[in-house]
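As a warm-up, study this chain.
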Amino acid sequence: MAASRLSLLALVALTHTALLSTLCSAADPYVFYDFKVSYITASPLGVPQRVIAINGMFPGDPINATTNNNVVVNVHNGLDEDLLMTWSGIQMRRNSWQDGVLGTNCPIPKTWNWTYNFQVKDQIGSFFYFPSLNFQRAAGGFGSFHLNNREVIDIPFAKPDGDIFIMIGDWYTRNHTALKTALDAGKDLGMPDGVLINGKGPYQYNKTLVPDGILYETINVEPGKTYRLRVHNVGVSTSLNFRIQNHNLLLAETEGHYTIQQNYTNFDIHVGQSYSFLVTMDQNASSDYYIVASARFVNESIWQRVTGVAVLHYSNSKGPVSGPLPDAPKDSFDPQWSMNQALTVRQNGSASGARPNPQGSFHYGQINITDTFVLTIVPPVTIDGKLRATINGISFVNPQTPIRLADQHKIKGAYKLDFPNMSLSRLPRRDMSVINATYKGFIEIVFQNNDTTVQAFHLDGYSFFVVGMGYGNWTVESKNNYNKWDAISRCTTQVFPGAWTAVLISLDNPGAWNLRSQNLDRWYLGQETYLRIVNPEENGETEFTAPDNVLYCGALANLQKQQKTSSASSISSETFKLFFSLLMAFFTLVCTFR
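Now compare it with the structure written out below.
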C-alpha cells in the first residue's frame, strides 16, 4: 500500500490523543489503513478524465476486518477541496463522531490528514466506503468494506473458496464538479455515459455500442469452486440488474445480515445497496461467460450503452465469450416484478450473525411502536430560485457546526429540532431541521415516494427491518400486511415510484445519524436529514465524547489549530504499523498495571 505522508511528531501526538483515553477498555485487535486520496487520470469509458483514487487505485483497496476489530484509517486529503470519508453501513456504535458526513464531522481541508478510529462492534457483512462531500462519489474514491465472522461463530454455509468484490455503478465522463455545476443550474444530469464494473468499462460484446480499446474487468475462477461475490452499487442514481451468464446467484447476505438462501438468475441492486451471492463454477467452460450490470426501469433501446459487461474466466476456458448478453427482466416500465423480488429477501432467523444468538431472537414484530414518521418525497421543486429536493417539504441545509459538536459546546441555533413527522400543508423551504428522536424508542418510518424515479434511502448508525412495500399511498391499514416475523434487517432500502416502503428501527445507538437518499443527485439537492438521539441520563457510558483529534469549524472554527505538513519527516505505512504495534504493546502494559 502506498505510503501516507505523516510527520513523526504529528503521528505520536495523534496516536496518543486518539487512543489513550479508550485503549484500556478495548481488548480487541486493531487493523490499520493509510488512505492517500488523490486525483488520477483514467479512461474507463475511453475518454480521459479525472477520477478519485485511494493510494493510486480506482476503486480503492478493500478494508478487511473482523467483528469487534478496532479500525484505524489515516486519511490524507490530496484533493483540491474538502474531504470526508464515510463508511456506509458501519454502525459506529456510540461513536457518530467517526461517521464522516457533514452533520457529524467538520471536513478535512486539502493537504491535511485526519485519522478515523472506530470499532466495528457486533457487525458482520458486506459494506463499502466512499467520499461524502461535493458529489465526489461520482468521481470514485470508493471501495469495499467487509466484516468477517469471528472464528467462534459459524457462518450458515460452507466456507467459500474465495471472496470476490464487485463494484457496479452508473458513470459519467463529465467530472464531478461539472455534474455539480449542472445541478446548481437547475439541470437534470441526463443519461449516464455507461456502467462500470470495478472501475472499468464494458467488454466489447457489441462493436456498435462499445468502441475499441476499452479496458474491461476479468474475474478469474477455478472450475467446481464456490465463491462469495460481494456486489455493491456505488453509482450516482441508476438501479442496476446484476447477472452472470448461465450461473445461479444464491443470495446469502445483505448489509450485515444473513438471508434465507434462494437462487436467482438475475437480481436488482439499487444505489447504495450491497449483497453477497454464493456462485458455484459448475459450467463446462466451453467459453468465458458474461457478467452484466444493466440499467433498470428505462427505455432499453435508448439506454443500451448504459450497460456494464465484465468477463468470468474459468482457468480451463476454451475460448472468449461471444454472442448476445443474457436477458434482463422484461418489465422496463413496470417495477412490480422488482418489488416482488425485493419482498423475497428475508432474514435467516436461525443463523447467528455477529453474536452466537440467532438473528431471529429479536422479536421486532412484538414491540410497540413509539412514534411514526411518514416521509414524503416529491420531484425536485424550486425554492428561492434554486432547484432543490425535499423530504416533507424541507430541503436540508447542513449546519455550519456539526450537531453533537454544537451540543457539546452549547452552541445555540446550530440546527433545529423541528422536523415534522408528516408532510405539512405549507410551501417547501430550506432549513436545518433535524428529527428529535427518543433514545430507546422503537419507531416506524414510512418512505412515501411520490417522485417519478426509484429512490434508495439509507440510515447511518443503524440497521432497520424492512417490513413492507406497496403501491399507492401508505395508510394505517397498510400495517396489516407488514412482515412481523422474518423481515430483512439492512441499512439501505429501495422505494419505488408511486409506492411506499416501511421500516422499523430500535433506537439504541445515541448520536446524530444521517438519513438520506443514496441517489447522489437527490442527496446533493437536499434530500436528507438527521436523527438526533440523546440519552437524557447520559453519564459518559452510552455515547462517546468527541475524540481528542476532533476538527473544528463553523461557530467553533477559532478552536482549530493549523495542521503542519512536512515532507522531510514522513514515514511509510509499514513504519506506521510497526510504530503503532509497539505503542499498543506499551499501552497494554500501562492498562495492566494501572
